[in-house]
Design a protein that fits this description.
The chain is built from 9 helices and 3 strands; from the N terminus they run αααβββαααααα. The protein has helices at residues 28-37, 40-52, 56-61, 92-100, 114-128, 136-149, 152-159, 164-171, 177-184, and strands at residues 67-68, 73-76, 86-89. The longest helix is centred in the middle third of the chain and has 15 residues, at 114-128. It starts with 27 loop residues before the first helix and ends in a 13-residue tail after the last helix.
Length: 197
């Protein structure tokens, strides 16, 4: 190393790192288009991601028996983190899904592998002319939940975060109360007939 008086970088202040970009979310209008274009299995993926905050891996493990309709909750089994195990409150769009698709038993996604589900999603995105960013359903849930309920602790519990500070830092963004109200009032649209994956 050069002595301080010979080192040209001595005394320089490093540039500040830019703040992280806010997570990509889906607008209520775009979500309405996605719901309307979805086949039954993609519809379930959309609803449980966007209105229950489940990761795709959590939705793939979700069983109909984990949904306690009478209690208004669903159970998320342990997964990605130690906080992943949790109870999530069911909101109106999830109850609307129950009216559209009769619940059965077993896996909500009927054991559908990731590749067929990706193909179904791609068809839905194309039909709706909406291409959500990666993890946008969960990010949308977090952003609209925080805006609607204004309670980082409540949102943190629903998402399985380790602290409200993590939730507030990630989802404090320019989501208006009107947009949040529009999000939570979206109905699950009637699903198209199931087609082979």
């Amino acid at each position: 190393l050069l002595p301080a008086h010979l080192n040209p970088s001595t005394g320089l202040v490093p540039p500040e790192a830019p703040p992280p970009a806010p997570p990509g979310i889906v607008s209520p209008a775009d979500m309405a288009a996605l719901l309307a274009a979805a086949d039954p299995l993609t519809l379930r993926w959309l609803v449980f991601g966007g209105f229950a905050g489940l990761r795709s891996s959590e939705t793939s493990r979700l069983r109909w028996e984990d949904i306690r309709w009478e209690e208004g909750q669903l159970y998320v089994s342990p997964g990605k983190t130690k906080n992943a195990e949790r109870w999530v409150t069911l909101h109106a769009p999830v109850f609307a899904l129950r009216r559209v698709l009769a619940p059965a038993t077993g896996l909500v996604l009927a054991g559908l592998g990731s590749t067929p589900l990706q193909r179904r999603r791609a068809r839905t995105f194309k039909a709706a002319a909406v291409w959500p960013p990666a993890n946008a359903l969960r990010h949308s849930f977090g952003s609209y939940h925080l805006a609607a309920f204004n309670d980082p602790a409540k949102t943190a519990v629903e998402m399985g975060h380790h602290s409200p500070a993590q939730t507030f830092a990630a989802y404090r963004r320019a989501v208006t109360r009107a947009a949040a109200a529009a999000w939570w009032s979206l109905p699950a649209a009637p699903a198209k007939p199931t087609t082979p994956g």
